[in-house]
Design goal:
alpha/beta, two-stranded antiparallel sheet, binds ligand 9Z3, catalytic activity, CoaB-like_sf
């Protein structure tokens, strides 16, 4: 059995797996004539105990994935958004730092009380609410939440299986921050780790490299884009290129944690392409994802027409 299959046989499916994987299948069937993008977003949690009190988190706010989802929708794609529960989501992300109660007013003028949005907030809320309603009415956005690494991998594989029926029109945009390390279930304590015996020695194992089966067997005809995250600038380019050479997918987008909102490097077989926001664009709040998605849509169209 491959290391990857071994992972699936020793880590149980998420509890709502059948419901979620059927939703994904139905979505792909409904959009079989559309371009469909699977966006993964947010960070995985790796539990340290079976009854989990503590876990190991990979950093990601979900900005990259959720804002990219909006730009893909704008470009006509149907979007499967596989995201870490409680990380940012398309449209609602614009209001992640507000307290909704501050925006609402209770109108007691009529007999039955009504709730209204404070007039000073309407111009901010309305355009985004309209876009959200339009997208939801079109049925072009399917959001699927995960929490743990294991749930993420099960749902990712289910999505790939469903997408493989789309005759190569699927795009995979793997922006989730996925742990490289985990504790196998048979090595994981059932109950909360106790401090009475001093600091625990926690031994982490390597997560199987899922890009290998993903690119070559799960969804071999798709256009696969992965992300590479580093904190040391001198490693980024070589590690991004190495990943492309290892897995033979279409593109690696490299970013440095500290500058990820302004700068990325796109590595393809034939070129390295930098996207850097200018000072003026930063002032105008241009989102780098608008440029990444624009570049990607062009490349994907070229691929589909070739
Ligand atoms: C990324 O590099 C994403 O761009 C970020 C986005 C997680 C930095 P935010 O959600 O951040 O906007 O706050 N994602 C990929 C990270 C990752 O785990 N990549 C693996 C690696 O670097 C390879 S698949 O080894």
């Amino acid at each position: 059995m491959s290391i990857c299959e071994d992972f699936f046989s020793s880590n149980p499916q998420p509890t709502n797996y059948d419901i979620l994987s059927n939703k994904i299948k139905d979505f792909c069937q409904l959009h079989k004539h559309d371009k469909v993008v699977l966006i993964t977003s947010g960070g995985t949690a790796v539990p340290l105990e079976r009854h989990t009190v503590r876990s190991l988190e990979n950093f990601s706010q979900g900005t990259r994935g959720s804002s990219s989802a909006e730009y893909f929708l704008k470009s006509g794609y149907a979007v499967i958004f596989l995201y870490r529960l409680k990380s940012l989501e398309p449209f609602t992300r614009h209001f992640s730092d507000i307290n909704i109660f501050d925006w609402l007013v209770v109108d007691n003028e009529n007999e039955s009380s009504q709730i209204k949005v404070g007039s000073q907030y309407v111009s901010t809320l309305l355009p985004i609410l309209k876009k959200y309603k339009e997208v939801m009415n079109s049925g072009k956005l399917l959001s699927i939440p995960y929490i743990s690494l294991s749930d993420y991998l099960w749902l990712l594989r289910a999505a790939c299986n469903a997408l493989s029926s789309l005759n190569g029109k699927a795009l995979l945009y793997l922006a989730a921050a996925v742990s490289d390390f985990y504790i196998p279930l048979d090595k994981m304590p059932t109950h909360k780790i106790q401090s009475d015996n001093g600091a625990p020695n926690i031994s982490l194992h390597l997560v199987p490299k899922i890009l290998e089966p993903l690119v070559h067997s799960w969804v071999p005809n798709a256009y696969v884009v992965s992300f590479k995250l580093e904190t040391n600038t001198s490693l980024l380019h070589s590690k991004a290129r190495r990943a492309l050479e290892k897995y033979h997918h279409k593109m690696v987008i490299g970013n440095i944690l500290q500058t990820r909102k302004y700068q990325v490097i796109i590595v393809t077989e034939n070129e390295d392409y930098d996207i850097v926001l200018s000072e003026e664009e930063k002032v105008q709040n241009v989102e780098i994802e608008s440029k990444i998605v624009e570049y990607l849509c062009k490349k994907h169209d070229l691929f589909l027409n070739s």
